[in-house]
Design a protein that fits this description.
Layout lengths: L7 H13 L3 E6 L5 E3 L2 E2 L6 H7 L7 E4 L8 E5 L4 H7 L4 H8 L4 E4 L3 H10 L3 E4 L5 H16 L10 E4 H10 L3 H24 L6 H14 L3 E2 L4 E4 L20 E6 L1 E3 L2 E2 L2 E6 L6 H19 L8 H17 L7 H7 L25 E2 L2 E2 L7 E4 L2 E4 L13 E4 L2 E5 L4 E3 L8 H10 L1
Parallel strand pairs: 1-7, 5-6, 7-8
Antiparallel strand pairs: 1-4, 2-3, 4-5, 9-12, 10-11, 11-14, 12-13, 15-16, 17-20, 18-19, 20-21
Helix pairs in contact: 5-6, 8-9, 8-13, 10-11
The structure holds glycine and manganese (II) ion (2 copies).
Length: 438
Amino acid sequence: MADPVKGEFARRRTQLMRLMGSDSIAILPAAPPRQRNNDVEYNYRQDSDFYYLTGFNEPEAVAVLIPGRAVAEYVLFVRERNREREIWDGQRAGPAGVVKDYGADDAFPITDIDEILPGLLEKCSRVYYTMGLNQEFDQRVVGWVNTLRAQARSGAHPPQEFVALDHVLHDMRLFKSRGELSLMRRSGAIAAGAHVRAMRFCRPGRMEYEVMAELLHEFNRHGADISYHPIVGGGANSCVLHYRDNSARLNDGDLLLVDAGCEYDYYASDITRTYPVGGRFSSEQRAVYEVVLEAQRAAIAKVKPGNSWDQPHEAAVRAITQGLKRIGLLKGSLPGLIRSGAYKAFFMHRTGHWLGMDVHDVGDYKVGDEWRVFEPGMALTVEPGIYIAAGTRSVSRRFWNIGVRIEDDVVVTRSGCQVLTDDAPKEPDQIEALMAAA
Ligand code: GLY
Ligand code: MN
Ligand code: MN
C-alpha cells in the first residue's frame, strides 16, 4: 500500500532538529504496552508523537535526536531480533532493520540503553523531553541525568536545562501536510460510509449494539479501527453526552444519536449523526434538528484563515439561542440570553476540538490569553448539539428525550475550509429518503 506520509518522517525529524538547535537532545519513548487483565494486553497502539517522528510501530523502543552530531543525529533503541519470540509475536525490525528501513543513522538493542544514553546526554546542555506521560520512563531519564551529575567532579557535563518537547512537537502536529490530509480524508470517508450503513440498518426493535456492530464492520473491512468507543444512544440515551453502554433496544418514535469515528493509518475521524429510529422525524424532533443544523452551518462558515478559535463556537451559540427562542424553549432577548448563558441548559459543551492522530488532537487553543487564529492545514471538528433530557423544567414533554448532535471534520484551507465527512447525509429530507429506501 502506498504510504503518503512515509517520506515525511525524515522531514519532520529535520524540522524538529532545526527548532531544537545544536547542543540539545530529544528523547522519546514508544508507548508502553497496556495490560487488559492477567497476561492479556490491549491491542498495541504506538504513541502518536513517537510515530509522528519515526513511523515505527513496535513497543520497547526509544528514539533519540541529537542535531548536529557528526556520527549519527537520529538514534533508535529497539528490541533485538529473536527467533523464539518472533514465532509467537511476529517479526521485529531489530537494530539493523531500523537503520535499513526506518532511516535511523545508528541503532542499538534497547537492553543497552542504560550504558549508551548517558554518553549521548553528556554532550548536550538542553534535553527535550515530555515529562509526566510515562512515569516509569521519567524516572529513567532522571536516573541518566543523575549518573552524569555524580560524575561531574570527574569532568562529566550533565545537561543544564529540560525543555517541554510536547510543546514544540504539538505545534508541528497541528498543521497537517497534504499527505496527512489525504489520510484524514480517507478516514473521514470510511467513517461516513459507516454512518450511512448504520442509518440503513436502523429500525425499531434493533439493539444499540447491533448498530455499533455495523459501524465496526465497516471500519474493519477498510483496514481501519475505532478512534474512540462509539456512542450509539436511542431515546433518553441520546441526551447522555458520554453514553457508552450501547445496550438498549431502539424504539419507534425515538431519535438515535450515533457518534463514531475511525482511525485509519494513525489518523482519526469523528462524526455524529442523529436520525429517527423509525425513519421519520416528528415535528418537534425536526424543529430541534434544524436548529442544530443551522448552528453547525453557521459555525462551519466561521472556519477560515484569520478567524479565531472561538468564532465558530460564538456563531453556534447565537444560532442555537435564536433557534431555541423560535421554537419556544427559551424566552427573552437574544443578547440577554446569550450573555446569561441560558443556552447552556441545552448546549453544554463546546463546538469542537483539534483533530488528527488523536481524536482530541494536540495543539494549543490559546496563545497567551488570545484564542488561536485559524491557518491553512489546521483540522478540527464542528459539533454543536441540543439535549433535552426527560424532566427538563419549563419544557413541554413533547420535547423530552430529544438529543441532537451533528458533527463533521473540517480542514482550514486558504480561502475557508473543506468538510472531510460530508458523504454522511445530514439534511433531514436526505436522511428520511435514505432510511425509506433501506
Ligand atoms: N467523540 C468524541 C467527541 O466528539 O469529541
Ligand atoms: Mn468530537
Ligand atoms: Mn464525536
